[in-house]
Amino acid sequence: MQGFRRLALAVMLAGAALPALAVNPDEVLEDPALEERARDISAGLRCLVCQNESIDESNASLARDLRLLVRERLLEGDSNEEVVDYVVDRYGEFVLLRPTTGGWNWLLWASGPLLFLIALTLAAIYLRARATGPADTGLSEDEQKRLDEILKS
């Protein structure tokens, strides 16, 4: 009985470690090679409802429609790139989990490191200005005389 419990626990832990896929059995293609291609493509497409899951992991009805669309395009003979281009043309670049770096997207990709460098530069300038602040030159001759007069009184 204890061996069964250990086996059940091992199966549960292994299942928890694997990503949950929402692909229904009626969506799976008969050709294993095409199904593998469909899974590869689906893993890179964002669910437009969940927004942070791939369509392969999402249970949303729109994600199901996108999975079926991917499989339909593959059955029509499209290459992986053609399928992704078709989906992007239809839904925009937001559907990609990993957006391209072309066009104006380079600005988004570069903005993080660029702002970090600007912050480092400004911090260095500020710290240098504080370290090399105005030197304490002491009192002028007139100020020293006035101080001496005050102290004598």
UniProtKB/TrEMBL annotation:
The chain crosses the membrane at residues 106-127. It holds the Pfam family CcmH. The keyword Signal applies. The keyword Cell division does not apply. Keywords: Cytochrome c-type biogenesis, Heme, Iron, Membrane, Metal-binding, Signal, Transmembrane, Transmembrane helix. Residues 1-22 form the signal peptide. Residues 12-151 form the CcmH/CycL/Ccl2/NrfF N-terminal domain. It comes from the Bacteria. GO terms for cellular component: plasma membrane. GO terms for biological process: cytochrome complex assembly. Belongs to the CcmH/CycL/Ccl2/NrfF family. This is Cytochrome c-type biogenesis protein. It comes from Pseudoponticoccus marisrubri.
